[in-house]
Amino acid sequence: MGCLRQLLVIIWPGSSLExxxxxxxxxxxxxxxxFQEAMKGTNVNAAxxxxxxxxxxxxxxxxxxxxxxxxxxxxxxxxxxxxxxxxGCYPLCVxxxxxxxxxxxxxxxxxxxxxxxGWKKAVIFLSGSLVGGLALxxxxxxxxxxxxxxxxxxxxxxxxxxxxxxxxAGEPAGPMQTGNVESSPTIVAPPxxxxxxxxxxxxxxxxxxxxxxxxxxxxxxxxxxxxSFLDDPFGxxxxxxxxxxxxxxxxxxxxxxxxxxxxxxxxxxxxxTIRVQLADGRSAExxxxxxxxxxxxxxxxxxxxxxxxxRLGRSDLLNVGDVVLAIGNPIxxxxxxxxxxxxxxxxxxxxxxxFENFIQTDAPINPGNSGGALINTRGELIGVNTAIIAKSxxxxxxxxxxxxxxxxxxxxxxxxxxxxxxxxxxxxxxTIDAESAKAxxxxxxxxxxxxxxxxxxxQQAGLLPGDIxxxxxxxxxxxxxxxxxxxxxTSPGQTLAxxxxxxxxxxxxxxxxxxxxxxxxxx
Length: 523
Prior knowledge:
Elements: E1 6-12, E2 16-22, H1 26-38, E3 93-95, E4 98-101, H2 107-114, H3 118-147, H4 149-155, H5 202-208, E5 212-224, E6 241-254, E7 260-263, H6 265-268, E8 273-277, E9 283-285, E10 287-292, E11 297-301, E12 311-312, E13 323-328, E14 336-347, E15 358-361, E16 373-375, E17 380-388, E18 399-403, H7 404-417, E19 423-424, E20 427-432, H8 434-439, E21 446-452, H9 457-460, E22 468-472, E23 475-476, H10 480-488, E24 495-502, E25 505-512, E26 514-515
Parallel strand pairs: 12-17
Antiparallel strand pairs: 1-2, 3-4, 5-6, 5-8, 6-7, 7-11, 8-9, 10-11, 13-14, 13-16, 14-15, 15-18, 16-17, 17-18, 19-26, 20-21, 21-22, 22-23, 22-24, 24-25
Helix pairs in contact: 3-4
């Protein structure tokens, strides 16, 4: 269809409508002038004059470049001559160079029209109505072409049709020639997908959620019974302690199809029974394979077939601002997913575990989420949810997760050795920030020894509380976490060269590394 150049709608009294639609083609004007020449004359019996302009033939309706349509039809009421037509003629006449003018013919010239039979009038009325309907349909299609071209493109057959050869001899049709369409690519607006632009992590949840389980832990607590001030009829035989059964909730993550589940140590500590419920509704009793209180991790195992396993990511590739999702079983509700971002990495000195290197996130982590999964947008495990800052401290939206790189190492140690083997020298440390350290004469942040365990390798090597640790094996130690991790990564039996400053003096102590005892947490 050619480009619409002109749209004229004329309405005047007498319920007549005329529409003229043209693309500006010369052939359209020729047809119009020919029609006007044919309508000249003063007597209905006179032979019409032949058109003075040739009318171009439209050879391809699909390639119609111009169209001119004149439609006149009466209203449903009978036609009555207007006050300006005393002769009884219709008030519309078509003459050369004019669209309308009052009839100049005499009454005798119109007598034949008044005597027109009823069936002819009906035919004219129906014909006008039909042509008028076609014109309105054409207007609708033209409107769609101008304002909503994508609808027409969607209804068209696949592929863009090519322009047909010009009917003229050998020359391609110009852009204004009638009967051809100028070859040009069709511009179609791309389809807009549902919820385009809206972030959705449904696929990540679908991948990871089946591997996140709910833990129902039962433990027996022993509490002391206070003696009553009143006389006790049982006297000395009255029980002084009472045993009470407690139940708690937590979450866990299935690591492989053999049934290994990682969770937090504090979730299963002192548990008598642990029941695991899967997302698909199955449940089983779990046994404890190993635990590591220093990192607040524990490894469980269940015996069920066809277990879903989560994919492990890499926490060292995380950046602040990355989107993360927390999956767990908060406050006894069914499996729940919350969303947030990575707020910080490498958080320590929280008092949660001996070796702290937490991921901080604003994804809500509520009671019951402990041991659940922190995943990235690809559905990979990047952390194990472990703690939140209590609302009683006046803050919200701060949660912590153990990085998956640390989880991977702890699990491998438990599987291969049955426990986590770490180095230990028996020192508690704290970080002195760079500003305070520079005020004390240091060039940056340093680590200070806060306490030393009795009989530990550190005590035997002569280290004292208050000593400033500058280097370990000639490598600067800028934070407490860095010092503890270096010691823990050293195999028992090896020796560390620790450079310290005590007052104004500096020296190096050679400390033999021992195996870390279980649940000993020097800080």
